[in-house]
TrEMBL record:
Protein name: Lipoprotein
Signal peptide from the UniProt entry: 1-22
Region (Disordered): 89-109
PROSITE patterns: PROKAR_LIPOPROTEIN
Keywords: Signal
Length: 109
């Protein structure tokens, strides 16, 4: 009966704990190692594991954000470079048209 009470108390707290902490609560309840839910060794270790996992996930997300920001900056630089190339190409075409026009005029004379 005691195990059933501890297991149901662990289930009630499961909504706010991490998965490893919840598993630790259940283990502690089964082994009778926690006088109160939240005080067993397996639950404390589970809480630490959950915190480490959350920290690692946050680090990965921060790195992904940094990579997205760098990609955005690189894309902006490449767009600006493409705009400069397009402008230079327009200038070259205009110069070529002017040169062709002058050549035609000189041939007609």
């Amino acid at each position: 009966m005691r195990h059933l009470i501890l297991l149901s108390a662990a289930a009630l707290l499961a909504a706010c704990d991490g998965t490893a902490e919840n598993a630790g609560e259940v283990t502690d309840a089964k082994n009778g190692e926690a006088a109160v839910v939240g005080q067993g060794p397996a639950e404390r270790m589970g809480a630490r594991l959950d915190a480490a996992r959350e920290s690692a996930e946050a680090a990965v997300e921060a790195k992904a954000d940094a990579l997205r920001d760098k990609a955005d900056l690189d894309a902006e630089k490449l767009e600006a470079q493409a705009d400069r190339f397009e402008e230079r190409a327009k200038q070259v075409r205009d110069e070529a048209k002017e040169a062709a026009k002058q050549l035609e005029e000189s041939v007609e004379r």
